[in-house]
Amino acid sequence: MSATDYLEQRILESIYTAQALQFDAVYAALFTSAPGEAGGGTEVSGNGYARPLLAPQSPSGGASSNALTITFPAASASWGTVVAFGIFDALTGGNLLLYVTGLSNSVAVGQVVSIGVGDFDTTVD
């Protein structure tokens, strides 16, 4: 995963100004056009789409994975081809924190996108 400019700035502020770096909750997102370090991209919208809450395990050794299954609602119409996955600090709107590109998964009507327990890993090195 890559960090956005927003998250990198927040980390530096935390280190150099002693501002706490804490997020009340984080949410998963899917994109049909990939974001980059400045954010952007085109997040899926409509047709039953909603960001699910992430429940990460406590980090250990610079890594964390999902403690619960990440499940997006069933698509009520095609969501198109998902090319990226991201993590936001809000259920709607908010700031993109982390993202990964290089996906290519079509989401058809009635399909549920799901990531099993422990299958979503985040590492910092």
Description:
- The protein has one domain.
- It is built from 1 helix and 9 strands, in the order E-H-E-E-E-E-E-E-E-E.
- It has one helix at residues 5-17, and strands at residues 2-3, 27-33, 42-43, 63-65, 70-71, 80-88, 96-107, 114-115, 121-123.
- It is 10% helix and 34% strand.
- The longest helix is centred in the N-terminal third of the chain and has 13 residues, at 5-17.
- It has 125 residues and is mainly beta.
- The protein is globular, with a radius of gyration of 15 Å.
Largest sheet strand order: 1-7-6-2-3
Q: Whole-number average pLDDT? A: 92
Number of strands: 9
Low-pLDDT residue spans: none
**How does the overall form come out from the CA principal axes?**
globular
Which oligomerization state do the chains in this entry correspond to? single chain
Helix content: 10-25%
Structural class of the helices, strands and pairings? mainly beta
| Strand residue content | 25-35%
Head-to-tail CA distance between termini: 11 Å
Radius of gyration: 15 Å
Q: How many structural domains does the protein architecture include?
A: 1
Q: How many helices in DSSP terms?
A: 1
- Biggest sheet, open or closed, and with what strands and sense? 5 strands, antiparallel
What is the string of helix and strand elements? EHEEEEEEEE
Short description:
This protein has one domain. 10% of the residues lie in helices and 34% in strands. The longest helix is centred in the N-terminal third of the chain and has 13 residues.
